[in-house]
């Protein structure tokens, strides 16, 4: 299957499902009550960075657009010069900081480097090149290390005039409390199912309606996750996980080797399998606690105490993290996950 992706946030003219946050930012512009720092939080793949660029473009678009009382959208026409320059990464008054790509390993680095964060200080201290605002976006602020977080804190402690710092973060708990307290926070919720369905129809029209409906359920409000799952044959992985859970408690240990054989050639197979298994167990516990479990969930939860399902969830998370963090043998990890699920540890 071909790779399927939403447009890059800096080039995406579409934002759906976050009208409340968009109106709040638009009101701040119109009322002249701009906070020097914004923290946009929420699950991965729901449009946080898209909102950040949308807001930044509007600020950079000029006084007439900033004070225009019409409408309740921050959107700029993609043909607008500001939109085109931001999309190309060539606007003098916008700076983006994120994890750098390592050409040697062909992977993104683990952390946002302190030297990259220090660039923000010099950038924001300059007079805006076009007489308006300067906008700096830190995309993936949860990836700040201790040194880069401290460097960012210094910027927040002495914010320059006519400059806005926007932090995009999927895990705000990893930020320093002193960083969080100096930002105006916007929490974006997962996308509602109708929005997910509309976006999937636009971004993945070749999928069947049944597959798109399945992705809406699997992705839990994240269009980014839905497209990643679709591109990596995640629908087939989801069916494998469903069959594995449906077969409990009569699952032999050999099933772990069968799973490894089925997914071993998929570069992201281990992550997709564990992520979907973990999500399925989380849904099982969540729906049971809320009294919303369906008959199949009720059958599964009766197989072990509820707290034991929670312990299994934590154990699978640990195996996933350690396997990926330390590049451990994924085949053995598949076997371990199935053994944990069946309670037949080897």
Could you explain the architecture of this structure?
The protein has 346 residues and is α/β, with parallel strands linked by helices. It folds into two domains: 9-187, P-loop containing nucleotide triphosphate hydrolases (Rossmann fold, 3-Layer(aba) Sandwich), CATH 3.40.50; 232-342, Zinc Finger, Delta Prime, domain 3, CATH 1.20.272. Helices cover 53% and strands 9% of the residues. The longest helix is centred in the last third of the chain and has 21 residues, at 269-289. The protein is elongated and about 70 Å long. It starts with 18 loop residues before the first helix and ends with a helix.
Which descriptors apply to this entry?
Rossmann fold; 346 residues; two-stranded antiparallel sheet; 16 helices; 2 domains
Brief sketch in words of this structure:
By secondary structure, this protein is α/β, with parallel strands linked by helices. The chain has helices spanning 19-31, 48-60, 63-67, 81-87, 114-125, 146-157, 177-180, 193-203, 209-219, 223-231, 234-247, 254-263, 269-289, 295-301, 306-325, 330-342, and strands at 37-41, 94-97, 101-102, 107-108, 134-139, 163-169, 184-187.
Fraction in helix? 40-55%
Overall tally of structural domains: 2
Continuous helix count: 16
Order of helices and strands: HEHHHEEEHEHEHEHHHHHHHHH
Largest sheet: 5 strands, parallel
Secondary-structure map with pairings?
Elements: H1 19-31, E1 37-41, H2 48-60, H3 63-67, H4 81-87, E2 94-97, E3 101-102, E4 107-108, H5 114-125, E5 134-139, H6 146-157, E6 163-169, H7 177-180, E7 184-187, H8 193-203, H9 209-219, H10 223-231, H11 234-247, H12 254-263, H13 269-289, H14 295-301, H15 306-325, H16 330-342
Parallel strand pairs: 1-6, 1-7, 2-5, 5-6
Antiparallel strand pairs: 3-4
